[in-house]
Amino acid sequence: MVETKKLSSIGETTPRLAATAGFAIGRIVSVSGAQAVVVLDSDEHGKPTGGTPSMGSLVKIISREGLVIGIVSGLSIPVPASRADEHELKILEIEMVGEIITARDGAQNRNFRRGVSAFPTLGSEVHLAAGEDLSVIFSSDATGLVRIGSIQQDENIPAHIIPDDLLAKHFAVVGTTGTGKSCAVSLILRGMMQEHKNAHIVVLDPHNEYAPAFGDQAEVIGPETLQLPYWLLNFDELVEVLLGGEPGRRVEMEVLREIIPIAKQNYRAGAGEASSLVRKTPSGGGNTITVDTPVPYRISDLIQMLDTMMGKLDKPESLVPYKRLKARIEALTVDGRYAFMFGGLTVRDIMRDVIGRIFRVPVEGRPITVMDLSGVPAEILNVVVSVVCRMAFDLAMWSDRQVPITIVCEEAHRYVPRNAALGFEPTKRAISKIAKEGRKYGVSLCVVTQRPSEIDPTILSQTSTIFAMRLTNQNDQEIVQAAVSDAAVSLLEFLPSMGNGEAIAIGEGVPLPMRIRFDRLPDGFAPRSSGASFSEGWKEDRGSAEFVDAVIDRWRGQRD
């Protein structure tokens, strides 16, 4: 009877709400926008009467439309007592993030939705959300939900992601090294593939971590099996490989710009069946071959044209740029580190095979590609990433969005650094294009980084969902807070103190901002992301000459 009297004083309250209200922990004394201040109830000894909330806890407030859901963002005692047994005024600050709507026709269904249509009034009772309320909030009515862990407030309540909202608008996983980013990414991707057997996911793996994480579901492309022919590179990418972006190479660049289209025309004219894909190009302007057209050509043709051009020069000093360019091309063709790009005695049009293997078209039971980039020379790593990201966007666009692709960019601060003077401009351009326009064509971006403050803020601002793991650096914390547009930014105050495997999940890809603990990966499927064990490595002497010879052999041969 007491409960019914309290509830009826608030306004229109259904019996269903009365049944779920429980004991009040306090009442609202101030409302300002989405923020509210609550005075906690206490007995004559100053002890809370309805439960003690903590930072990040969910509370509910009865309103005309149903239950307003809020997140505890602050706890305080304005005037502390001098003794523990004295009465104190305890204040709770909450941010209202959504509401649970109960059907007015008496039906039992209750649905959670973001946003608040009817704000609570002064004096409204506040209750801790628990049990059934949490189940309604975190279950969502979206289809194809994927479990990734459990919520911190109640480990029995699963934490889900909403695949379409997560991928269509990009997402990021950030956290200090050692906090479990690689495991979190693997868990999210494994859940995606479990629900979607015909996914197209590419993981750019610079440290060879992810190969064991997906078992036989992954197509692993390592240093010895990577194929990315030089003729797939556009002009900017090829100049970076051949000239290294060095200043004062204008002559070499102009020579390349002139002879590459001729070499492509020569190949097209004499390749016969090998050029069938090119000959299917529609007539008219579509047949024009430019320096960026992905058409095969022979390195031998470039060298031959360089020799011809040098033979026409009458001043010895004019030969220097041509000789330098020729020497660089010849050096790369015999460098084992560049075999994936310049290797092979013959030139064939394998664009179909390259695209099909990297982007899993057809899927053939392997919806994810792990590109182990640890064996790619560091000076052209950015070029390889640029080519893959650019081809992903072009494939999605020219396939009329029939092949949605997700690119997972591990160590993203390498490729899209905040400092405009660093990095490789075509790589920045390719990743930025996906971040800004990928949604329209079906290309999704997952940004993984341990230093959010070192990444281009434009990229991070385009991610609508962020999984923020422990961050101890103040600059990193501020960058993440600036990128979050959700009302529950106060949750990010936990970032410095969270444990490994925990994250704050905020954005459109999750039902509600929440602190979660990721599930454990099955045995044998954890990424190789743990550091070297010094104590184990120093237990025995491995200083034999044979051991050093074996290391040198692998070093020189660029083998794993």
UniProtKB/TrEMBL annotation:
GO terms of molecular function: helicase activity
SUPFAM superfamilies attached to this UniProt entry: P-loop containing nucleoside triphosphate hydrolases
Organism, as annotated: Candidatus Phaeomarinibacter ectocarpi
Pfam families cross-referenced by the UniProt entry: DUF87
Record flagged with keyword Nucleotide-binding: yes
Protein name stated in the entry: Bipolar DNA helicase HerA
TM helices/strands, residue ranges: none
Assigned keywords, A-Z: ATP-binding, Helicase, Hydrolase, Nucleotide-binding
Domain Helicase HerA central residue range list: 146-391
